[in-house]
Amino acid sequence: MSRSRLTLLTAAWLVCGANGAAAQQSAADLVVTNGRIYTADGARPVADAMAIRGGRVVFVGDRQGARALTGANTQVLDLAGRTVIPGMTDAHGHVTGLGLSLLNVDLNGTTSFDQVIARVVEKARTTPKGQWIVGRGWDQNDWGDTRWPSHEALSRAVPDHPVALERVDGHAILVNALALQKANITKETKDPAGGQIIRDAQGNAQGVFVDNASGLVERTIPSPSRAQRKEAIKLAIDDMHRWGITGIHDAGAGADVLELYEELGRESALDIRVYAMISDNAATIDAWFKRGPQSGLYDGMLWVRSIKLYQDGALGSRGAALIEPYSDAPGTGLLVSPPEHIKDVATRALRAGFQVNTHAIGDRGNRLVLDSYEAALKAVPTADHRFRVEHAQIIHSDDIPRFAALGVIPSMQASHQTSDMYWAGTRLGETRLRGAYAWRSLLETGTIIPNGSDFPVEYVNPLISFHSAVARQDAKGWPAGGWFPEQRMTREEALKSMSLWPAYAAFQESELGSLATGKRADFVVLDQDVMRVPEAMILDTHVLSTWVGGKRVYERK
After folding, report:
1. Which of 63, 60, 57 is nearest to 38 (CA)?
2. Between the CA of residue 192 and those of 213, 214, 290, 510, 514, what are the distances in Å?
């Protein structure tokens, strides 16, 4: 063989070897193929396949293109025609609240006070005498008698345990006689600012404490231990994965919970993307303002760059602050925080580079928050603040365009509409309902609406909010045609409200929210195509698997 031919063959072998190494290097870790992938990406809304490497999407397109990135060690997920959507993000939930609810008495779904008492009695059988029994989830609007309950029947049934039962919205608690005694509640105990003690005709505490009055009893309840809180967070994460949630905006995390998130991050045990809103505590806020905004800690699992404030209470407990009195009771609701406080924290947050997200439900509550934000932005002009109003349930028509004008994001929970629609008209009257849960009116002004559940107020399943957004009906298809159907979202909007829009509302849109090249590979496999099945079938959809960063964190058995 001539030297020249040998040289050519050697060069060819080197080239082939280099090409083989390059091919192996470019092979994907995971290829998802043979399905219908909704990307929430305007450039390519639907695809057949995608490839993932290093926890990020490296290809979205057809099966042939994905096949080219399949190497010897590539995991192939054959969808067999099933549907993929971006990992769903709940833009407003309470992680420790969910976890603790899984450890305590679950009162969701109870349809009478007797059912509530029966569940507490069952818990008392396995609880040592004298130990507190805590639960959550009752709603007197679902009972035959929708008046506030009185503690007597509960006290007779459970006399040896102090009992504290949080209302479904978290804005009222019901306690028994022993709990009243331990909290030293008497006829002379005064209502605190921003709170109300429900009383009988003689002025005695009836057992229900609304908004800030709840603290009169809650301060006597032993706090969960650090270990219990950590276990609660883990339980909540597992439960969210089961429903296809890959990201959560935790609406109010104290210093202890923030510390636990960081600990889980260091342990590589935080396998859900947490956007934590710092609870309204002066010392905690000051400490984080000094530390500064934190984004994408622990390989993109934790963000701490926002503050959670409260303006008013909830509609179900008549704590939502209204401009005009309630239609079914005297009074205009409660201001949990003075507007001056909202303005002050918002102004300082702008200077420190933090977002502010304020709970407001009533039309007066929403107006006051917008006023406070507007004043803060005049003091510290900021182009891309992305301030949020959490819930934004009832908005005066004059204030709807102010959200887009101020760059304020209405973070809403579609499932609240289908939970509240049975009795909201009684509270508000027909005229105010026109500005209630008004998604289309807000969207047409140019704003976005990140969606969520407010769990454990509502069920964790995000497809409930997806269905509510597009149908404005309950699971039984009531009312026919939808409740104020002109306010519905399209399915494309509903999908973005649970993926891309929460990402934008958390300054994460370059990393999360859609299945596009370069973004983190968070996705969910469904057994039905929620974008095309009849509305009545959406709630029959099951999550088959949940993936975070290209790793499976849940699989349906």
Report:
1. 60
2. 6, 9, 32, 45, 46
Asked if 252 and 282 sit in the same domain, the reply is yes
User: How far apart (Å, rounded) are the C-alpha atoms in residues 276 and 174?
Assistant: 29
Q: Let me know: does 329 contact 544? Beta carbons within 8 Å.
A: no
Q: Is the same domain home to 200 and 268?
A: no
Contact assessment for residue 438 and residue 445, using Cβ atoms and an 8 Å cutoff: no
Q: Cα–Cα distance between 509 and 499 in angstroms, integer?
A: 9
Domain that holds residue 473: 89-93+224-555
Comparing C-alpha atoms, which of 529, 94, 66, 480 is closest to residue 279?
Answer: 94
The span from the CA of 442 to the CA of 459, in Å, is 25
How far are the Cα atoms of 48, 85, 144, 535, 551 from residue 67, in angstroms, in the given order?
11, 21, 60, 35, 20
**CATH number of the structural domain spanning residue 67:** 2.30.40.10
> Burial code of 403-439, b = ≥16 C-beta within 10 A, e = fewer?
bbeeebbbbbbbbbbbbbbebbbebbeeebbbbbbbb
Ranges of H-type helices in 396-522: 400-406, 414-420, 424-433, 439-443, 462-471, 491-497, 500-505
Give yes or no: residues 162 and 140 share one domain: yes
Q: To 10 degrees, what angle do helices 255-266 and 226-242 make?
A: 70
456: preceding bond cis by omega (within 30 degrees): yes
- DSSP reduced 3-state for 411: strand
Number of folded domains in the chain? Answer: 3
The alpha carbons of the chain give a radius of gyration, in whole angstroms, of 26
How do residues 168-219 score in pLDDT, each as one tens digit?
888 899 999 999 999 999 999 999 999 999 999 999 999 999 999 999 999 9
> Same domain, yes or no, for 287 and 428?
yes
Cis peptide before 462 (omega within 30 of 0): no
Which of 81, 110, 126 is a domain's end point?
Answer: 81
Return the ∠ at Cα 65 (arms to 62 and 70), rounded to 5°: 120
- The helix/strand/coil state of 550 is coil
Q: Per-residue pLDDT tens for 257-266? A: 999 999 999 9
Look up the CATH number of the domain holding residue 132.
Answer: 3.10.310.70
The model's pTM: 0.86
Burial of 479 (0-12, 13-18, 19+ CB in 10 A): middle
